[in-house]
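Quick check before the chapter quiz. The format below is the same one you will see on the exam, so make sure you can read both the input and the output lines.
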Amino acid sequence: MPIIKLSIFSIAYKLLGAITQPIADEKISKLLEQIGDIFKIFLAVLSSISFMIIIGTTLVLKISNSGMMYR
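Here is the expected output.
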């Protein structure tokens, strides 16, 4: 759920930056686009941490089951 929320925020800020470009000041549109980039970085960090947790849990379960198999 947080991954979906971060991707929606990233797309929304990028879209908002594109919409405000002809209307507002250039600094405001650049700020909104940079906020969208920050949400992309958060999304990458969250995805990689989630992947590492899944791999770590799988390894722990595999190691603990192999010890029981030798008894």
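If your answer matched, good. The radius of gyration is 20 Å.
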